[in-house]
Design goal:
Keywords: Glycoprotein, Membrane, Repeat, Signal, Transmembrane, Transmembrane helix. This is Chondroitin sulfate proteoglycan 4. The protein has about 1050 residues and is mainly beta. It is elongated, with a radius of gyration of 52 Å.
Length: about 1050
């Protein structure tokens, strides 16, 4: 269709025209619009009239339509392993009538085959082709030759190029399916045999038996075996049925089992086959060993007195193995600990941590202890249990349960009384005192009766020996041989009273037998005991000992220190130091008291004389914590008084843990310290540590609550009150030294300070090796830093990349196009696209992915500089892969078809978001901006002159219109025998031409001036056309 437009600045009208003038043709206002993409040619006829003679009628104008890209098409194909295939139509074809006839049409190999080569039929056979002509394809001279490797697929990428017309096709990928050929025999790579326990059934692991075949899968490798000599082979899915063949895939899946029967040494012979080839003469050895079995002996029960500590013994827990394993190698793991107490080690019990593992040897040594903790409610018998796991590799683990019984029925050396309480009574001479359940209580007897019936029972105390120096009264009635008993209920009601008869302070007491009493006073079987109740008579003028103020005992962890009068001292003028006795009621977990001249273990009883003589020492074998001894002190004539001894175990050494350097945000210039930077630990964390500055920072200072400070503590660090602030913006890092103090120990450390750059860096996929990509804000962006500081951030290249370089990219054609190395640049350079990164290839290594990085220093006004790293990965260029960066150039090709070094175009490109390997072209707006006066103004003057000269030339050449033209028409025979003038169409001026097809990356914006490269393309001489043909 022919259409018309009024002027060069107006958009073309799509309305068809039926007449036009030569002047409109010369002015480029007559357009041909191609509307059928499937049509490669067109024709229209016209009549030409000049007004001076007869018109020329029936002039036929033939048009041949050329697409923007060469229409290269390809079909995938298959080839046998090691075979060849000819690349010829229809596998490879170029549609349309024109391009296949071009003599200079070549095909370039962008991506060569990975498992084969492209070769000429009669050419050299070394290497692969990097380029070949279309004529060779039509003559069936180009072959794809597979290298015979055990691969299933291959591919290569071609692009067609017509250098005469500066046209090329889009990359076309050939996908090749390799048809495998079974030509390799299987290979047995692993045959180590199997070691197992006697009589067991275990899987044959693939690490013990493995075969491979380069052209067969695991499911095609079949093991065929003879009858095993010491067992049978079964499958996991059918363990009762013996099999004589299995596959490597079943081995890999753990489905093949060997069940041992008979002799310890044996195995089976087998052959390995892939269906066509076999590998014979193999033997798989199976060795069975006597199975290591664990067993538990002993009662597996432990009976313990209430409130006492008892070691686990071999009588209650004793493990052994069938091979006599060393007890140190028999391990117990506590799966569930006790509910009524705790399990601890003699050397670790003071830490208070529950024991989780121990050995049989430690049980033999009595180092594993069970401690029962007295509950607040009375009981007669309670049960507990320890769930353990016994192990001794390689024997299978064994579960064990140790039943613990806590009972008043047990013989208790540590507890002489079976009653809940039997503490005795203190009474003044000639006075009386109540005997209550605080000193005498048999409630645990009642606890043996089920709760619903407990109220019907009582405990009867029968006095077997009365007091010698006093009298017992029940409800103010004296007890005597006629009534020698009282009840637990009367004790609970406070009705039992002892009255001293005077006449001295000799000790007194009574003996009794206690047992359960049923309903209505009936006697019944149950708990019973015979004991004595001690009564201590003291002088009315006796003064009890007076404990004195003490100071804590301080010592380092792992040491021992004597206990002096500064820690334990009482005033008692009536008693000598040897008569003042201390008893340990409860010991801490961080150590124990030891008495010189006695056993090296803990002591529970000592005198003031021992303290005064320096014989009492504290051994700090636990953690560095404060422990409290609960003591009672008595002079023998007064009731015991409670006392306490505080022991502060200090750490032997401390350590300042610096988990990470202090990172200061670049835009803020300050940051608070946290536990990540400063934390003091010994055997535990020191929450009260203090810090003192020993070496101040060079480029900043420390602030505590906003004020400069040289000392601070851990609490202030945890609260975020300690802040480091930069005062000098000349360095990206700093450091300061501190001295940490914690409970008498100290340690030094250096805190490193770095600046965290306010920079957004690339976090996308890999970059193509050999290409040049544009560095822009998608890769590096300090825009946020620019907004916060009101300045243009500057970058300084400190290191890298190892395989490549940062170069300057010219924006205009007048700028030099050489690769200028860049060491410094700004954020504006990134935004303007003035920087490129030439991505190189690692030298001396095979092609493949590689890592690289850029180290930059970022500067901005009013903030400290920061060092940042741009880490990226590179890979060989893949034309079929979309790269999310702007590529300025692609890898060049060497003669061997491998990617070579790339040459940057020197022009910013568009983001390569598709696999089309088209090099990014010049940015037209940038071109106009840079060449406003040097190019645009002269072109306007030239167009003005052309507008004046063209009419004059048209008039002068009206009579003589012969000459060379790019466009020819087929002249028609004159009508009526009249010979008309030979008319031709004159070549359209480049500045007036309207391109009807878009050239990739070079189209000028609507209404703008055409690109100089476009003009050069339009002036390229074209091949001669046939008569009646017209270039579009």
């Amino acid at each position: 269709m022919l259409s018309h437009r009024a002027t060069a600045a107006e958009l073309p009208s799509l309305d068809p025209v039926h007449s036009f003038s030569q002047e409109a043709v010369d002015a480029g206002r007559v357009l041909y619009l191609h509307s059928r993409p499937e049509a490669w040619s067109d024709v229209f006829s016209l009549d030409v009239s000049s007004g001076l003679g007869a018109p020329l009628e029936g002039v036929h104008v033939e048009l041949e339509v050329l697409p923007a890209a060469i229409p290269l098409e390809a079909l995938n194909f298959s080839v046998p392993e090691g075979g060849t295939r000819t690349l010829a139509p229809p596998l490879l074809r170029i549609t349309g009538p024109y391009f296949p006839t071009l003599p200079g049409l070549d095909l370039q190999v962008l991506e060569p085959p990975q498992h084969g080569a492209l070769k000429r039929e009669e050419g050299p056979q070394d290497g692969t082709l990097s380029t070949f002509s279309w004529r060779e394809v039509e003559r069936q001279l180009i072959l794809y030759v597979h290298d015979g490797s055990e691969t299933l697929a291959d591919s290569f990428v071609l692009v067609a190029n017509a250098s005469e017309m500066d046209r090329q096709s889009r990359p076309v990928t050939f996908t090749i399916t390799i048809l495998p050929v079974n030509d390799q025999p299987p290979v047995l790579t692993t045959n180590t045999g199997l070691q197992m326990w006697e009589g067991a059934t275990v899987p044959i692991p693939p690490e013990a038996l493995r075969g491979t075949d380069s052209d067969s899968g695991p499911e095609d490798l079949v093991y065929t075996l003879e009858e095993p000599s010491n067992g049978q082979v079964v499958l996991r899915t059918a363990p009762g049925a013996e099999v004589h063949n299995f596959t490597q895939a079943q081995l890999d899946g753990g489905l093949v089992l060997f069940s041992h029967r008979g002799a310890p040494d044996g195995g089976f012979r087998f052959i390995l086959s892939d269906g066509e080839h076999t590998s014979t003469g193999h033997f798989f050895r199976v060795t069975a060993q006597k199975q290591l079995r664990l067993s538990l002996e002993g009662s597996r029960t432990l009976t313990i007195c209430p409130g006492s500590i008892q070691p686990l013994s071999s009588q209650s827990l004793r493990a052994s193995s069938s091979t006599g394993v060393d007890p140190h190698h028999l391990f117990y793991r506590v799966v569930r600990g006790p509910r009524l107490g705790r399990l601890f080690h003699t050397q670790q019990g003071s830490t208070g941590e529950a024991l989780e593992n121990f050995t049989q040897a430690e049980v033999y040594a009595g180092n594993v202890l069970y401690e029962h903790e007295m509950p607040p409610k009375p009981f007669w018998e309670a049960r507990d249990a320890l769930e353990l796991r016994l192990s001794s590799p390689p024997a299978p683990d064994m579960a064990a349960t140790l039943a613990v019984t806590v009972s008043f029925e047990a013989t208790c050396p540590q507890r002489p009384s079976r009653l809940w309480k039997n503490k005795g009574l203190w009474v003044s001479e000639g006075q009386r005192a109540e005997i209550t359940t605080a000193t005498l209580d048999a409630s645990n007897f009642l606890a043996s009766v089920p709760d619903p019936r407990r109220s019907e029972h009582d405990v009867l105390f029968q006095v077997t020996q009365f007091p010698q120096r006093g009298q017992l009264l029940v409800s103010e009635e004296p007890l005597h041989t006629g009534r020698p008993h009282f009840l637990q209920s009367e004790l609970a009601a406070g009705q039992l009273v002892y009255t001293h008869g005077g006449g001295g302070t000799q000790q007194d007491g009574f003996h009794f037998r206690a047992h359960l009493q049923g309903p209505a006073g009936a006697s019944m079987a149950g708990p019973q005991t015979s004991e004595a109740f001690a009564i201590t008579v003291r002088d009315v003028n006796e003064r009890p000992p007076q404990p004195q103020t003490s100071i804590p005992l301080r010592l380092t962890r792992g040491s021992r220190s004597p206990v002096s009068r500064a820690q334990l001292s009482v005033v008692d003028p009536d008693s000598a130091p040897g008569e003042i006795e201390y008893k340990v009621q409860r010991a801490p977990h961080n150590g124990f008291l030891s008495l010189a001249g006695a056993s090296p273990g803990p002591v529970t009883c000592f005198t003031q004389a021992d303290v005064d003589a320096g014989r009492l020492t504290f051994v700090a074998n636990g953690s560095s914590v404060v422990g409290i001894f609960q003591l009672s002190v008595s002079d023998g004539a007064s009731p015991p008084l409670p006392m306490s001894l505080a022991v502060d175990v200090l750490p032997s050494a401390i350590e300042v843990q610096l988990r990470a350097p202090l990172e200061v945000p670049q835009a803020l210039g300050r940051s608070s310290l946290s536990r990540q930077q400063l934390r003091v630990v010994s055997d535990r964390e020191e929450a009260d540590a203090a810090y003192r500055l020993t070496q101040g920072p060079r480029h900043g200072h420390l602030l505590v609550r906003g004020q400069p400070a040289t000392a601070f503590n851990q609490f202030q660090v945890d609260q975020g009150e300690v802040v480091f602030a930069f005062t000098s913006f000349s360095s990206s890092h700093d450091q300061f030294g501190i001295l940490a103090l914690a409970r008498g120990a100290n340690a030094s450390a250096t805190v490193n300070v770095t600046v965290r750059a306010l920079l957004h860096v690339w976090a996308g996929g890999p970059w193509p090796q050999g290409a040049t990509l544009r560095l822009d804000p998608t890769v590096l962006d300090a825009g946020e830093l620019a907004n916060r500081t009101g300045s243009v951030p500057r970058f300084r290249l400190l290191a890298g990349p190892r395989h490549g370089r940062v170069v300057h990219v010219p924006r205009a054609r007048t700028e030099p196009r050489g690769s200028q190395l860049v060491e410094q640049f700004t954020q504006k350079d990134l935004e303007d696209g003035r920087l490129g990164l030439e991505v190189g290839r690692p030298e001396g290594s095979s092609p493949g992915p590689a890592g690289d990085s850029l180290t930059l220093e970022l500067w901005a006004r009013g903030v400290p500089p920061a060092v940042a790293s741009l880490d990226f990965t590179t890979e060989p260029y893949n034309a079929a892969r979309p790269y999310r960066v702007a590529l300025l150039s692609l890898p060049a090709r060497t003669e061997a078809g491998e990617p070579g070094s790339s040459t940057p175009t020197g022009e910013p490109g568009l983001a390569a978001s598709s696999p089309v390997p088209t090099v990014a072209r010049g940015h037209f707006l940038g071109f106009l901006e840079a060449n406003m006066f040097s190019i645009i103004v002269p072109m306007c003057l030239v167009l003005l002159l052309l507008a004046l000269i063209v009419p004059l030339l048209f008039y002068l050449r009206k009579r003589n219109k012969t000459g060379k033209h790019s466009v020819q028409v087929l002249t028609a025979k004159p009508r009526n025998g009249l010979a008309g003038d030979a008319e031709t169409f004159r070549k359209v001026e480049p500045g007036q031409a309207i391109p009807l097809t878009a050239v990739p990356g070079q189209g000028a914006p609507p209404g703008g001036q055409p690109d100089p490269e476009l003009l050069q393309f339009c002036r390229t001489s074209n091949p001669a056309l046939k008569n009646g043909q017209y270039w579009v």
